[in-house]
Amino acid sequence: MVQADLISQITLKASAITIGGYDGIHCGHRFLLDAMLKDAHQQSLPTVMVTFDPLPFVFFQKPKFPKNIILPQERAEIAEQIGIDYLITLKFDQQLADQSASDFISELSESLGLKSLWVGEDFSLGKNREGSQETLKKLADQFHFALHILPKLEMDGGIVSSTWIRGLITEGQVQEAAKLLGYPFFIENKIVHGAGRGKKLGFPTVNMQIPEGKIIPAIGVYTTYIRLHGKKFPAITNVGTRPTFYNDHQIVLETFVFSSDGKDEYGETARVEFLEYMRPEFKFGSADELVNQIRQDIRHAEAFFEKQNQL
User: Fold this and answer.
1) Is residue 94 part of a domain?
2) Domain, as residue range, for 302
3) Per the domain annotation, does 175 fall within a domain?
4) Do 127 and 27 sit in the same domain of this protein?
5) CB under 8 Å to 49, separation ≥6 — which residues?
6) Which residue has the higher pLDDT, 138 or 229?
7) In this structure, are 32 and 151 located in the same domain?
8) Is 116 found in the same domain as 221?
9) What is the sign of the dihedral through the CA atoms of 180, 97, 90 and 141?
10) Is 254 a catalytic residue?
11) Which of 74, 254, 265, 276 is catalytic?
């Protein structure tokens, strides 16, 4: 997959294009993208995803807007996996916000040979959201491209959206979020040195910071997988401030891996996949109380994995 941060960096004679924030590239997004990919392959057209960083919602500072489900580099990985040929991540600034729908479409047509445009039914484009469905239909006639406006996908009694999924994640409902995403919510970052308390307690942990811009799941303990050294290991992960030992409010990830290959992980990148919310984070009265609870957590997680293996 070819990546760019300006439309003008890519020159194509013809293409199928989709535009959107695509935070999460969830099942609703996949419904649209799969339709575009199928049609584009039938017409031998390369596919282009045009998206933004920051997301327009973030730029306009919508009230209480949470952070992203996936970061730009993670979005690129998923886009490549599903078969997108070109990913253009535009910097969303005031200049872009002020651009008219007509000028934007003209740029897509000139540089990328726009032949078909694929968007959701709530999509709008250009300054003050002037590029409504009716405007896009007129632009399709003017610039000679096919316009495909797809309905939203409904699952579990609601319309799949990034907003819904963000809410589930912040409430700890990671199993429900995974259904809508089509994959487990994950946090990926480099492994850092911790205080070593887990090792002293008999449960050494892999420690990670939550990347800037990434949504934080509900504080608590989760059944997880951790991907290390190209392998996937069962684990439990605490998302929290470790109140038994610390009084600060810095949220960190501490993951106890059930089995590992024993390599030195510091500085390497790991991915924690959240499978199930187990319990809230507690402040224990002693280290022994904490150890007993960790043992219970491990038994709970082992039962979870055993059940999953039987399915």
Assistant:
1) yes
2) 184-310
3) no
4) yes
5) 17, 18, 20, 22, 33, 79, 84, 86, 87, 88
6) 138
7) yes
8) no
9) positive
10) yes
11) 254
